[in-house]
User: Fold these one by one.
Assistant:
Number 1:
Amino acid sequence: MHLFGLTNEQFEVFVLMFLRVSSMLFLFPIFSSPQIPRQLRLGLGGLLTFVIFRSVPAPHLDGGAFELLVGGAAQVLLGVIVGFVASLIFTGIQFAGELIDLQIGFAIANVINPQTQQNITIIGELQLALATLIFLATNSHYLLIEGIAGSFKLLPLPYINLDPSVAGNLSLFFAQSFLIVFKIAAPVVVALFLTNVSLAFMARVAPQMNVFVIGLPIQVAVGLTMMAISLPLLASIGPEIFQGVALQMDTVMRGLRPAPP
């Protein structure tokens, strides 16, 4: 039987590849946005699978439908793990903006994030939008596509190995995303902390002064000024951060590679 010009074995390989590619695209930054319809993401997954299909060595599947089902579940799990790793950076950048909002006093005002359809703070959305633009401007999305194509050489079909080192690597990458949060938010948060300390001293020196009335405008002015000054920091460390995403994906996939027979 030939379907779309493919033999049964080739069609099974195509299905496994499609499951891996589509699972990654549904969680990768930019591609996972709800603004991109599911049909388009599935179509893009099918297109990428078609492009790299001939370059992937065909595995030997002799276990019938059960082996195909287990292999498909393994590809979906692989896509979810790698996609989660790739999305950690953007989550950290958004959290850095939310920390700044909390210190300035903007946390009371929320907006809808078009990518996650959730309420986030104003500066959190601004930081996420800037990170997205830098991500696209530096062609870092090509790294994700290259990672998808290279995954089939690094981690051949159809199975994966859940090595204990994978959990350790995920914890490490999660901690590294928090380090990025501090790098981005530290200038503004430290400046606002010093501002609050100064206001506290003023309240002690001049108790008749209403610190709550004058404190909020001062906090907003200091916060926005420091954010404008430190904004180029995101542009300078952005490419390096996105390069690190590719390395993290590579590390995770090496940990999932089955041991040689």
Note: Residues 124 and 218 are 20 Å apart (CA to CA).
Number 2:
Amino acid sequence: MNLLRRNSWRCIQTNQKNNFIVGIIIALVVVFSYNVEANPVDFIEGLPNLAIVIEEMSQVDADLFGIAFWAMFETIQMAFIGTIVGVVIALPLSMLAARNLNSKYVYGPVRAVLAAIRTFPSILWAILFVIMVGGGAFAGVLAIIMYTVGFVAKLQYEAIETIDSDPMDAISSIGVSKWQLIRYVVIPESASHLLSQVLYMFDYNVRQSSILGLVGAGGIGFYILGHIKWFEYGKAATFMIVIFVTVLIIDWVSVKVRDKYIVKSQHGMEVKAK
């Protein structure tokens, strides 16, 4: 009976604590909304303007689909190159940044560099590289590489740090080198995480590449910006439709790859779509 009372009291205390945290979060949302001048009335009053834009975007210019597909193809190439090169660079950096593989004198500076890379979003990297190498797809590829390096390296060293220490200790006890430890334990144990990260980054980079064109870094975004500047929303919608279809296809392919290689390797079975 006393045990039941103690458990009930603990549940009450836990619920009170959770309610207190939720209350703090709600209060912060209200305060921050006031600080950024978020006004729902302005949003409601702006809905008629949104309706006008949607009506104009419904007037799609079918003659531009050919140009849109070629621009999307360039965008996919940018994302593919940027993702692959970025992952190749990020993988060794993630090994150096893992706390369970290196001393603080190694992983500390490496993490600082990766944090500095992540400080700038890809569009700011694109502006920098446009200044360096001029406008075009190459500047966009360089921006994607930088963002991919910072993002994937962080996710990967966090995945490495979650690896069970028992296999690593067992391999280390027989006197293997660090390279052999990485090759036979770290990489196999974190491979599914890496594949998942590659798929996510490619999907993200395709969508991000569509925006980089807004600052002259190539891709389909260049055409979208040009039409929006002249209020040609119907023509811009043509390119947006192509982006939407491409993202759906990439998402479908990613799901198939995840089900076949990632989920199957983690659970020992293949997922069948219902």
Note: The domain at 63-267 is CATH 1.10.3720.10 (MetI-like fold).
Number 3:
Amino acid sequence: MKVVFFGSSSFSVPPLQSIASFVSCVVTRRSKPKGRGYVLEDTEVRREALNLQLPVIEIDSFKDEAIKDIERLRPDLFVVASFGLIIPKWALDIPSIGPINIHPSLLPRYRGPSPIQWTILSGDSETGVTIIRMNEKMDAGNILYQETIAVGPEDNAITLSDRLSKRSAVILPDFLSETALVGLHEGLTQEHEKATFTPILTKEMGRIDWSKSGTEILRQVRAFIVWPTAYTFLDGLLLKVLEGSVAVGEMGQVERHTIPGTIFAISKEGIHVCTGSDGFIIRELQLQNRKRMKAYDFSRGYRGLEGKVLKYD
């Protein structure tokens, strides 16, 4: 069975590693220039594919000439894991058996590009891995396999993505072995009326509104830890909040009329901030043009923090 693997992020790497013996070619998004020298930086998938000595095709879109190379392979199966481009129907029709997608949510919940972030942002206690038979609609194909996975109380987008990716890597080899023998079964039609959709992440989503609860802000910090990161403004400078916790019961120390975003205490735990309903402790942060550091260490070098107000813009 000839498999073409599509992937472009760190989530894609463990699944690729687990089914490398099936894979004839890897398709990934084209590397983009980074830094002042505009040096091309390989995607993690491209690096791993080359390490596995697998042919790599890089594309910007399905209008690229390189797509013809995929057609010439006459593949049996497409396996898609966090690819980052919508695959048009004419391309989905290329593999003789069909195309499958590994999606890190319990479909039909959280279709779209950011299911892991929205799982954490929503405070869900469970998520999962779903394998679907792809069609021309986004994440709407029939369910071929689904497994529930718990979300831990300390999970962020990095830890949850890592766990879902590694679990996908365990599931895939047996799934492909069975597919090679009997093909793809019809699967279960999704309950489309229950579908929810996640958006493309934007920088604005990381902006902290201190009038929200500490719990909501903590979810925001954990959901957007990779990008755009949760951020606020201190003395006009962008301040990234990289780790924190809810300070339960601390509002007794603060006047009820205190403006949300006011720094009301400093401790070895970090910087204590008034929110809309409770307190929030910033534990790790990064001020604009400075390195990441513990909040308490930062406070020792940035005097006069207590009483300052962290701003929305």
Note: The domain at 203-301 is CATH 3.10.25.10 (Methionyl-tRNA Fmet Formyltransferase; Chain A, domain 2).
